[in-house]
């Protein structure tokens, strides 16, 4: 039970934070050991997740896509060292959120055929690596678009109804926490395509993305979701792959890509606020991932990291999905010293900091 109240990784601090989590609401001893406080008497029935590789626990294992992470060294620090399809060395944000909300340790992939009704009742992830708000993003890798994910969500609702009836299903659907992590692939990949770049400038394209994002939230709302968290974009220009591609000889952060992320973020926040006003009974929460990830990248040592400009896998400069090979002897031995696991995705340790930051600041806004 105690474990559910904290999202801790280092054992020596865990016992301290367990005590703290009983006594102190919203306080924090150490960045990885903050107790997450839900409002009194609140029980979250389920966590339901949509988006891209940041929160795909292996949906892509079950479809014919080039975007997969179900082979070593992915999952190297996961329980049993299994490569589940998660795009990291260990757990991903959806898992850490469910853990912090006291629901379960892992949020499974909706497409996993071994799921039992209990797994469905406590939440799943519909996310698919390579997806984005732009419908073209998923098609580039034959991944599941957000529209596909909504279709799966509707199917999920039918399954719940068949298992526990209409009323219990509506209670679960309305009281659960929803998270949408998307948009990165749109800017780093899809926006570079001639059919996008030649047709739209950054200003227009980021507005289109924000429109797609708000439409998606409205569709979730129409299906009964009420508590919906939407992330903004991380500092994309500082992802190791983008430093390599666009950062020059010194692999600086790409100022242009960071700027594009900021332009999008500055539009998303007010749109989500007005959506919240417009949709009765909704709690639409803007989740800032830009700030905490930039904190880690700019001041790694302050947070216990040693390297933030390249990933752990291989040279760390370009390796991601199929390029991240188990046979690459350059891969780091201790991923917890790295902010990035591969050239695009953070390590579990970085994700813990990120999720803690989000929940500490924003969990109460869901209520
Ligand atoms: C479901 O809820 C409705 C409205 O509150 C109620 O009338 C009905 O009896 C409930 N059905 C069951 C099976 O509990
Ligand atoms: C972007 O394109 C739109 C529509 O074509 C135009 O009105 C706007 O001035 C352009 N913005 C910039 C910064 O070039």
Automatic annotation (TrEMBL):
A Pfam family it matches:
Lipase_GDSL
Gene Ontology annotations for the cellular component aspect, listed alphabetically? extracellular region
Transmembrane residue ranges: none
Q: Out of the domains of life, which is the source? A: Eukaryota
GO MF annotation terms: hydrolase activity, acting on ester bonds
Annotated Gene3D superfamilies? SGNH hydrolase (3.40.50.1110)
Q: Which PANTHER family match?
A: GDSL ESTERASE/LIPASE EXL3, GDSL-LIKE LIPASE_ACYLHYDROLASE FAMILY PROTEIN, EXPRESSED
- Family from the record: Belongs to the 'GDSL' lipolytic enzyme family.
Its recorded name reads GDSL esterase/lipase EXL3
What phylogenetic lineage does the species belong to? Answer: Eukaryota, Viridiplantae, Streptophyta, Embryophyta, Tracheophyta
């Amino acid at each position: 039970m105690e474990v559910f109240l904290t999202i801790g990784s280092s054992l020596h601090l865990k016992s301290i934070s367990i005590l703290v989590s009983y006594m102190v609401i919203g306080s924090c001893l150490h960045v990885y050991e903050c107790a997450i406080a839900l409002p009194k008497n609140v029980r979250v029935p389920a966590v339901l997740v949509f988006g891209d590789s940041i929160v795909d626990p292996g949906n892509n294992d079950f479809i014919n896509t080039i975007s997969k992470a179900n082979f070593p060294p992915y999952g190297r620090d996961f329980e049993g060292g299994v490569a589940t399809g998660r795009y990291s060395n260990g757990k991903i944000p959806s898992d850490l959120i469910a853990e912090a909300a006291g629901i379960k340790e892992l949020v499974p992939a909706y497409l996993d055929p071994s799921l039992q009704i209990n797994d469905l009742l406590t939440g799943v992830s519909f996310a698919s690596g390579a997806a984005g708000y732009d419908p073209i993003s998923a098609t580039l890798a034959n991944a599941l678009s957000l529209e596909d994910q909504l279709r799966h969500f509707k199917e999920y609702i039918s399954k719940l109804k068949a298992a526990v009836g209409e009323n219990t299903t509506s209670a679960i659907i309305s009281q659960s926490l929803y998270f949408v992590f998307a948009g990165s692939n749109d800017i780093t990949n899809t926006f570079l395509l001639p059919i996008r770049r030649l047709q739209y400038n950054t200003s227009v394209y980021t507005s289109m993305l924000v429109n797609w994002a708000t439409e998606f939230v409205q569709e979730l709302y129409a299906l009964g979701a009420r508590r919906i968290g939407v992330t903004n974009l991380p500092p994309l220009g500082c992802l190791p792959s983008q430093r390599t591609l666009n950062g020059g000889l010194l692999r600086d952060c790409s100022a242009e890509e960071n700027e594009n992320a900021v332009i999008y973020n500055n539009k998303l926040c007010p749109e989500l606020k007005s959506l919240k006003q417009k949709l009765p009974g909704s709690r639409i929460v803007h989740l800032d991932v830009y700030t905490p990830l930039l904190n880690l990248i700019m001041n790694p040592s302050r947070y216990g990291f040693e390297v933030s400009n390249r990933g752990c896998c291989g040279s760390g400069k370009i390796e991601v999905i199929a390029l991240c090979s188990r046979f690459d002897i350059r891969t780091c031995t201790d991923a917890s010293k790295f902010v990035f696991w591969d050239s695009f995705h953070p390590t579990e340790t970085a994700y813990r900091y990120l999720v803690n930051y989000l929940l500490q600041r924003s969990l109460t806004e869901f209520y």
